[in-house]
Amino acid sequence: MQVNALPDFFNELNKALPNCDNEIRRIFHGRGRLWQGLDQLTADWLGTQLIVNLFKPVDDEFMQSLAQGLQHLSQTEQWKHIGAQGIGLQHRYEHGAPFEVITGNIELKPVAIENGLKYQLELGKNQNSGLFLDMRLGREWLQQRAQDKAVLNLFSYTCGFSVAAIEGGASKVVNVDMARASLTRGRDNHRLNQHDLSKVTFMGHDIFRSWGKITKAGPYDVIVIDPPSFQKGSFALTKDYKRILRRLPSLLTPQGIVLACVNSPAVTQDFLIDTMLEEAPELIYQQRLANPLEFADIDEQASLKALVFSR
Q1: Facing residues of 44 across strands?
Q2: CB 43 within 8 Å of CB 15
Q3: Does residue 197 contact residue 182 with C-beta atoms inside 8 Å?
Q4: Per residue in 33-49, pLDDT tens?
Q5: What residues does 258 pair with on adjacent strands?
Q6: Span of the secretion signal (predicted)?
Q7: Alpha-carbon gap, residue 297 to 75, rounded angstroms
Q8: Which long-range contacts (CB under 8 A, 24 or more apart) does 98-106 make?
Q9: Which of 36, 89, 114, 159 is most buried (most C-beta within 10 Å)?
């Protein structure tokens, strides 16, 4: 990270802020490596507050310049015009991802809005706030295709795909994630959007030990698979993904479709295409969903890969 690159960061913020409204968005994505010297820096707009994330330690000069620049930003007429309330900085590289308020007031449990849907976030406790912003177009894709569909949401986290599916008219959604606290947040997200929870199932189970329950609740018209790249003791991408893919034919309806995702820079989309061909050859690759423009990456194979397959 280079302190002399920070003017580029603030120039980008100044260009993005006039277009900020009450929707949550990534407004600076240094991790796409398009900004030399800023590759471990991001900034997210949460509707009324700006959250800056550092992914690696920086020296004192960089930290002081970053903080001073953010303080200055908060005093501009542009900042006041958009009704901004505060700026927070999260140190994602440290254990517990500690959070500090740079200026103003920060709501640590804000309700964010994406495409008109509400999501409960939580800042300052975990690395992830509760919604992966690069998956915005994936949630849109599902919402547009969910009418009267039965949906299986594997590795559901806080059920963002489930919220989009029910909003899109899904007949039912089955969410599976071993983190029960995340599923509790998922229930809250559905309640925030006044959804009928009788259409939503929450399974707080290890997927690999729950195929019987998952199968019994099927079959499914749409299956979403959005796993972590690695989860100690429960999921290793290159080893365990194939164990899921081989189950898909028995879970899907005859015209079923799959959205299979991977967000590891260590593998390309060919990993998913080749593994699907090996484990479930009746499912044919159709397309890769575009990523939001704000997540542009110098190497598209290093960014989120969300691939659609169908029988």
Answers
A1: 26, 51
A2: no
A3: no
A4: 999 999 999 999 999 99
A5: 223, 309
A6: none
A7: 31
A8: 98/124, 99/123, 99/124, 102/52, 102/67, 102/70, 102/71, 102/74, 103/70, 103/71, 103/74, 104/49, 104/74, 106/49
A9: 159
Question: Between residues 139 and 265, which one has the greater pLDDT?
Answer: 139
Q: Dump the DSSP string for 184-239.
A: HHHHHHHHHTT--GGGEEEE-S-GGG-HHHHHHT--EEEEEE---SEETTTEEHHH
**Any idea where the domains of the chain sit in the sequence?**
3-120, 133-310
Give the architecture-level CATH label for domain 3-120: 2-Layer Sandwich (3.30)
**pLDDT for position 190:** 98
Does the pLDDT of residue 252 top 90, yes or no? yes
Dihedral of the alpha carbons of 288, 289, 291, 292, in degrees to the nearest 10: 160
Backbone angles phi, psi at 286, to 5 degrees: -110, -50
Domain 133-310 annotated CATH 3.40.50.150: yes
Closest CA to 261 of 249, 246, 251, 276: 276
CB 49, CB 123: distance < 8 Å:
no
